[in-house]
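hiii so my PI (J.) wants the whole complex modelled not just the main chain, which honestly fair. so below is everything: two entries, each one labled with what it is. i double checked the lines twice but i was tired so who knows lol
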Amino acid sequence: MAFEKKRATSKQDIPTASLPDIIFMLLLFFMVSTTLKEFNVLVKFTLPEAEAIEKIENKRLVAYVWVGKGDKIQIDDSIIELKEIGEIMYAKRQSIPNVIVSFRVDKDSKMGVVTDIQQELRKVHCRRINYSARFKS
Amino acid sequence: MVSFKKRKKNPAEIPTSSMADIAFLLLIFFLVSTNIDVDTGIGLTLPEWTEDKPIEIKMGADRLITLNINEFGDVLLNNEIFPVPRIRENLIEKIRSKIELPAEKKLVVSVKTDRKTNYNLYIQALDQVKAAYFQVREEYSLSKWGKKLVDIKDNSPEEKELREKIPITISIAEPEEVK
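here's the output for the full assembly
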């Protein structure tokens, strides 16, 4: 008995028309999952430089406080008064319990304003802070 | 007579196999061109807030190092004017000698600033303190596990041991009442 090889009669192409869609889905996934929250920084500041700096791996935990020239304090997208900090940070800690407050302070500022902010933060138990600094090269 | 032949129908197809490559190129372009800036800085934990006056804890002079930075830009290490770039080497010796001591005998660095102290100077001084601790930790991990500090993962037993042996205790002094 002769064995005959069965051959498929249909075409042997893999349909590639949907490949770009799959790749576009990938692209969209990456675009959505990366957090690129840009803030409208309203204050002027230059960060200090330091050597022994650490990276904040989890950006979602970070809340920023800017202190610019003329001791202007900015949180989120608006310039605020010192006494408002407590309230805002309390709300932030409600949504992110282990929030890290990143201080982006102009290097020519005085410590007075920084100390004041720290005192306000301590009152609402936001105790993890980070003095933002650039790497000294 | 000219015969009008009906043209044979060709299925009109656009080659789509290269579309995926184009999309890939786009993906790679976006991946490369977005610069995700990493937040870097000096981490610190503030002391807990107390309504009433903080309890004064007497500490031996061998444990406590005070770092005062006043409004004129002088940095005082244990009440002596000290150049900022040399704080690190001064501290390293002290941290190193306390690695094997129990937790209640480890070094505490108390940083105190004035309201008019320059912020940059404060960061430079704090940086020196941190750098000293990091250097001792690096030496310890290199000699014990042959690992660099960056290769030690968070929450690993090595990291826990480092924290236990060389804890970074930087105390931010309570600001004085404004007179």
